[in-house]
């Protein structure tokens, strides 16, 4: 099925109390989002969030309680998504046009994304249009320090929303530091500040998480490798591994690297075309060796024998089918690979590239 026929799904994540429900409440009041089905997952036996979300028609809120979506009740989510097509139909007409899934504050988004990518029935009916992560500006720095889940929520986001900025009199150095840290963790994500959940629906509707071959977002913008290059160490030229091993930045007080975040963003540019066999072999090895720590991998690859770029995109050990585009968007034919990793250093990635890809 094409993008036009599959239903968009938005994943709303963010640490406990960071403003997910407040945002959802504002969004569902917007006419543009009227035909939205909401799935709320709460951890614990008594769930409250679904009571807090007001919606035009209450029967378009589904609550998945007593377990966390990313672990124990992923099957429930899959079943719910399979069933809602007929459950929410009136006289054969589906009564919703999109789905927003609000996760628990402690959920890791990647397993939920995998469910959407790997379940054949779901993948034929739904497409992930965006991952939105809320961060409470007052507590986000400490939360990122203490909770790897929070870092992972940032790493896979397309849109990062900094909430509760109204509680600070004016933009503070802390807010600037937080923004710099988020850019370090996920250079390609958009970052916005919001107050009391106010966000124009278009901010969601314009997201385009995957499938650049059908996307309205230009390829270069989708990859956004320029953002990675700005914040990562420096582009790698094969054969210069010695220089890669040396620390290349001096950490200052304001440097977001000083937090020792486990998550890092890396970008590699490779001038030469790559054979299909090597690309496949390298991807297999990469996934076998470090799949679970590869939070996000995206690439535009110059493959020998193809007139256009081959686009790769994976979340942890699961890759979307590669897309073979017919033409390059501009004269630049270089392969660009961007990674967001957990506890994987740049040198390690560089070595796999040099050894198995080149
Ligand atoms: N001042 C202020 N308060 C906010 C803002 N956003 C959310 N809050 C408040 O923060 C508290 C937590 O917000 P929620 O929207 O419930 O957060 P959540 O992420 O859904 O929380 P959990 O379901 O516990 O994970 C509530 O009391 C909200 O009213 C904001 O922008 N400004």
Provide the spatial order of strands within the biggest beta sheet. Answer: 3-2-6-1-7-8-9
CATH class category of the largest domain: Alpha Beta
The ordered H/E elements are EHEHEHEEEHHEHHEHEHHHHEHEEEEEH
Strand proportion: 15-25%
Helix content: 25-40%
Class from secondary-structure proportions: alpha/beta
- CATH homologous superfamily grouping of the largest domain: P-loop containing nucleotide triphosphate hydrolases
Tell me which ligands are bound.
guanosine-5'-triphosphate
Specify the overall morphology: globular
CATH architecture type of the largest domain: 3-Layer(aba) Sandwich
Could you please say which CATH topology of the largest domain applies here? Rossmann fold
Give the number of helices: 14
Report the biggest beta sheet as strand number plus sense, adding barrel if it closes. Answer: 7 strands, parallel
The average pLDDT is 76
- The parts where pLDDT drops under 50 for at least 5 residues are 43-52, 54-59, 230-258
Radius of gyration: 21 Å
Distance separating the two termini: 35 Å
DSSP summary, beta strand count: 15
- Total of domains: 2
